[in-house]
Amino acid sequence: AVVSTQSGHYGRDIKAEQKQISVWELTDEGKSFVANGSYEFVLYSAVTKDGILQKELMKMPNAKIGFSKAMTLGWLVIDKKHEDGPTVFRKVDDATDVVKTMLEDINTQKKVDEKKIQDLKKRKLITPVVTKFYLVTKGTSFNTQIERPEADLTADMLQDGSWKEKSFKEYNFKAKGAPITSGYLHPLLKVRTEYRRIFLDMGFSEMPTNKFVENGFWNFDALFQPQQHPARDAHDTFFISNPEMTDASKLPADYLEKVKSTHENGGYGSTGYNYDWKISEAQKNILRTHTTAVSARMLYKLAQQEEFRPVKMFSIDRVFRNETLDATHLAEFHQIEGLVADRNLTLGHLIGILYAFFKKLGIEKLKFKPAYNPYTEPSMEIFSYHPGLKKWVEIGNSGMFRPEMLLPMGIPKDVNVIAWGLSLERPTMIKYGINNIRELIGHKVNLNMVQENPICRLNKV
């Protein structure tokens, strides 16, 4: 209330100056000194003219402190060679309890030497007590009739001239404006936008990724992934119950036969998997497990063109896997994928474009480790050196699509396709300091986090 009188219009009516007074107050131990005497004086008083054995004297309360102080003051002396054992005698005939006297003076607000004050403070016999208060005086425009100042200058005041007799509230130009109610972008969307911009800057075009429900043919078979592969088991994949199957007529017949033949008997330099390929497995509807299913559709569409043209494409969207939920895994997450299709591409081209891509993200220290994927050969895991963790960490996967995948589509023999992928969640969690993925996606998301997280700016080069 006092502070409010100092702001704006009322500051001219009332002036309030904050002041404080600091005084010394006795502690509980100090009060006991005033009542009973200091430890050293009590100990001195207990020593008779004939002396007292030191071991008997030290049985008194607080004897150790009192004896040390009394010896320092020269009140007592000890005869260690006495026939009865170490004995304490008075060194002076009379002593004055100066500590008690000073504490009594402090208690009655009398002046005490500053050096003595500090000694008493060290012994925790006194403690400072600060009293704060306001000295209120009349201002330059003090008036017992308080007039509410006007907040706005209106058109009516200007017309009738009443503004000349009004007092106006002072504007606070440092005040924050009222918060604007609006929608907010989730951190994943902000990071996704940055990755998308990098792809577009590098000349890539975006693939359509609106088919969350995919069939086994495009998700697995077209990628030369065998039907008995563990990834096609219910423990890893979500199967759709209604509709359970895709109509076989919606699958390209000629291409389907080539895929079947490649799986069963091989071809294009491959021995295949030598098993009985079943169309019923290919027809099963699932939630797509990777966006590479989209890449397969787009590459098949590219192969149907009369004349092959090199392409660079990317996708960023949601995929689904029957994972065990924990701090770093969810049953749904986002996959970032890029691919380049051109004649006579090599592993060197893949490594070069990976360096160019990650350099845009501010990541320049890369190394590659051989890996296995059913639909890429050779395959490489991508590692980056993390200066904070001081170690190499995996950041993605890459490879060249196998001939058993590309040639049945109708892709020319001299055309190779290089591709790489990584998750969207991991860099987002690192960027915004989130340790548990369930705090980023799902019902445990803090809406304040969504509203207050900063703009995403990657350290692009």
Walk me through this protein's architecture.
This protein is 30% helix and 23% strand. With 461 residues, the chain is α+β, with helices and mostly antiparallel strands. It has a 7-stranded mixed β-sheet, sandwiched between helices. It has a 3-stranded antiparallel β-sheet with strand order 2-4-3. A two-stranded antiparallel sheet has the order 1-5. Helix 1 crosses helix 5 and helix 2 (39-46) crosses helix 4. It is elongated and about 120 Å long. It starts with 13 loop residues before the first strand and ends in a 9-residue tail after the last helix.
Strand order, sheet with most strands = 6-9-10-14-13-12-11
Task: Identify the overall geometry.
Answer: elongated
Which percent bin holds the helix content?
25-40%
Report the count of strand segments.
Answer: 14
| Cα separation of the termini | 55 Å
Provide mean pLDDT, rounded. 85
Q: Give Rg in angstroms.
A: 43 Å
Element-by-element helix/strand order: EHHEHHEEHHEHHEEHHHEHEEHEEEHEHH
Main sheet makeup: 7 strands, mixed
* Helical segment count: 16
Strand content of the residues, in percent?
15-25%
Low-confidence stretches: none
Structural class: alpha+beta
